[in-house]
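Progress note, sequence design subtask.
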């Protein structure tokens, strides 16, 4: 890799593989972080999207295969894991969601497992996959999708659209507008009510995205800093941090899932 100093090493590992329009109006991959930044809004973070799609397909494939081979006798190890996850998510939805919807439980399961898998990529040694892709001619490869705010905001905005959709579907446009304008201070304070409720509504996807991004960007940075240390010290620090990280990614996946369930439950409340 091109990195020779600690600063270059950190910068290299935190730079996405970006495809977009270059200064000469041609399209291609950015050769460095500066060129990636110059590509602007419409640039595509190929590595973040690629790993997100790959892990999503992996999740669906494994669960589909287990569902096809499910047995009522002594279950296999993978069936046990899937059943535990499904039961855990199902109980969480039953306890927190008070409406009726066939979407919420599958959505909650997808969110929990997908976020966990995306963050689990941090357990792979930070130099391994970048080295593999570098040997194939790919200079940059950021392998943890949720360290990219585009991915976390994409997930949170999708949840936001679902909140708006179900709010209008269950309450009607009149009920949804009334909820934004008549609470909490009644009809005499409509502009102030609308300002407060709009901020509260917009804060939901923003907080979901930034919480997920902030936690795992910091975790990725710590793994990179550990990678700068001598080899014998790396293993001393990496193992306990990896164990702690597994606990953190489970907790963060659970928090994102639970907040999604609660927000959608609120959207289903007619009053």
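Output:
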């Amino acid at each position: 890799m091109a990195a020779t100093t600690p600063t270059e090493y950190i910068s290299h590992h935190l730079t996405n593989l970006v495809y977009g329009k270059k200064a000469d109006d041609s399209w291609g991959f950015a050769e460095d972080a500066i060129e990636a930044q110059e590509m602007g809004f419409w640039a595509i973070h190929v590595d973040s999207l690629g790993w997100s799609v790959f892990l999503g397909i992996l999740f669906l494939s494994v669960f589909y295969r287990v569902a096809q081979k499910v047995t009522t006798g002594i279950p296999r190890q993978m069936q046990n894991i899937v059943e535990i996850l499904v039961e855990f998510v199902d109980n969480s939805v039953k306890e927190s969601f008070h409406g009726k919807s066939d979407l919420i439980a599958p959505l909650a399961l997808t969110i929990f497992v997908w976020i966990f898998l995306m963050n689990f990529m941090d357990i792979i040694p930070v130099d391994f996959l970048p080295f593999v892709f570098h040997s194939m001619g790919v200079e940059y490869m950021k392998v943890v999708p949720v360290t990219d705010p585009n991915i976390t905001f994409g997930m949170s905005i999708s949840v936001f659209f679902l909140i708006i959709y179900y709010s209008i579907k269950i309450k009607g446009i009149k009920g949804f507008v009334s909820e934004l304008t008549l609470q909490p201070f009644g009809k005499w304070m409509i502009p102030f009510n609308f300002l407060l409720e709009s901020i509260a509504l917009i804060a939901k996807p923003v907080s979901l995205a930034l919480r997920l991004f902030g936690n795992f960007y910091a975790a990725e940075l710590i793994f990179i800093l550990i990678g700068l240390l001598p080899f014998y010290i790396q293993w001393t620090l990496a193992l306990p941090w990896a164990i702690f990280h597994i606990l953190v990614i489970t907790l963060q996946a659970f928090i994102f899932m639970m907040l999604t369930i609660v927000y959608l439950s609120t959207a289903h409340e007619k009053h």
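Residues 190-227 form the longest helix (38 residues). Work on this subtask will continue into the next period as scheduled.
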